[in-house]
Amino acid sequence: MRKHKIILHLLLLVVPALLIALAGCSFTRSDLLEIATAQPDIHIIPNDTHSYSFGSVEVYDVSKQTFYIENKGARTLKIEKLYTSSADMKEFVIDTTYTASNIEPGESTTFDVYFKPSSDIPIGDDLLIESNDPDEGIYQINISGSGRWGSGNPPMIVVLQGPSPVSPGSVAHDFGPVNVGSSTFIDFTIMNDASADYDLAVTGIIFKSGDVG
Predict the structure, then answer these.
(1) Dist CA 128 CA 69 (whole Å)
(2) Residue 168, domain extent
(3) d(CA 39, CA 41)
(4) Same domain for 94 and 165?
(5) Contact by Cβ (8 Å): 172, 185
(6) Is 8 helix (H, G, I), strand (E, B) or coil?
(7) Within this chain, do residues 96 and 162 fall inside the same structural domain, yes or no?
(8) pLDDT (tens digit, 9 = 90+) per residue, 36-78?
(9) CA angle at residue 79 from 78 to 82, to 5 degrees?
(10) Are residues 98 and 188 located together in one domain of the fold?
(11) Domains contained in the chain, number
């Protein structure tokens, strides 16, 4: 019987409180449906076409764009992850130092994207935002930009075998006969021509034929 009395007391406390909270409120059936089905709604500025171009930026200079994340829904928007699809691409950097994880309805937060081109080749990546917006899933923005050389001389690669320069496409060294199970090597030096006014960025060294152990 004591258990039943406790439940009764709780009901007597909760029901008046609920009646007080709803006093003076008038809800239609559509209002109640809207409340029950309310969801967060992510909106990004700028996002006219789910893309943003940094345009032309001088090589090694930095251009910054601030993006705004708005919650136009009726429940808390949770930002779960914000990243680019190409993790090894260094030209685009995201700064989320002041980005809030939870955004209440009608509020917003920001994040910055920096573009620092290392060459004059146009480049692009996908900016991805994971949230609890049920309509969007992963929100995608294509970011792009291109570098341009300024008034100085662009970098110029120079490859040396010993003291001698190696011409592009030439056979720099013939290893000759090498006993099976043994090895030999030769050193090459990569330099940036002395006339260059920009740093030389070496992005990779591979064999042209591909599959060479």
Answers:
(1) 13
(2) 151-172+183-202
(3) 6
(4) no
(5) no
(6) helix
(7) no
(8) 557 999 999 987 689 999 999 999 899 999 999 999 999 999 9
(9) 170
(10) no
(11) 2
